Amino acid sequence: MIIGIGGVSRSGKSTLANLLVTYFRKTGKKAIIFHQDDFVFPETQIPKIRNKTNWESPESIDFELYKEVIELFRSRFDVVIAEGLFAFYDDGINQLYDKKFHVKISKRTFLIRRAMDIRWGYEPTWFIDHVWQSFLRFGKPHKELKGVVNVSGEDEFDMEKVIKEINR
Fold first, then answer.
1. Exposed site from 1, 33, 78, 146, fewest CB < 10 Å?
2. How far does the chain reach from its first CA to its final CA, in angstroms?
3. DSSP letter string over the chain?
4. pTM of the entire predicted model
């Protein structure tokens, strides 16, 4: 089974992926996570926006390698989880998913969580807005993509609902 998890920055994608890996491993299945952030091109190859590296562009991700790794590990694991901002951007990868989860949060929650995130130091307001706009433009699952289940990342995940969807 291949599970895709998408959502805006700080929505809870990695948290949900970790909860699912724990669940599957407890049930005796081999499960692994691939984070899209691990498949970015070298910084020199990523477009800039106002002299800042534009990590929020699909052009920053090596989708070919990402897809190759997902396909390779499909035969080695019972469950492969692929998560990232652009989880639903590439049609070739979308076709691999058996299950798709979109972690939704409000813009307000995004802004609060992003402001608390100090990993990259100070981020100008325009850039934080750019992250949100990039998600709306490139990260949201498009209407033609079938089978996407929305889950709330506002509070704790309703794992009962998520597991029920997986077993459907």
1. 146
2. 12
3. -EEEEEESTTSSHHHHHHHHHHHHHHTT--EEEEEGGGGBPPGGGS-EETTEE-TTSGGGB-HHHHHHHHHHHHTT-SEEEEEETTTTT-HHHHTT-SEEEEEE--HHHHHHHHHH--TT----HHHHHHHHHHIIIIISPPTT-TTEEEEE-SSS--HHHHHHHHT-
4. 0.93
CA 104, 49, 34, 70 torsion: positive or negative? positive
Q: Where are the domains of the chain?
A: 2-163
Q: For residues 132 and 140, is the Cβ–Cβ distance under 8 A?
A: no
What secondary structure, in 3-state letters, does 84-102 show? ECCCCCCHHHHCCCCEEEE
pLDDT band at 96 (very low <50, low <70, confident <90, very high): very high
Please give the single-letter amino acid code of residue 49: I
The per-residue pLDDT for range 38-75, each reduced to its tens digit, is 999 999 999 999 988 888 899 999 999 999 999 999 99
Task: Extract the tokens encoding 79.
Answer: 């469950």
Segment 114-140 mean pLDDT: 83
- CB–CB of 105/155 below 8 Å? no
Distance separating alpha carbons of residues 112 and 150, to the nearest angstrom: 21
Fold of 2-163: Rossmann fold (3.40.50)
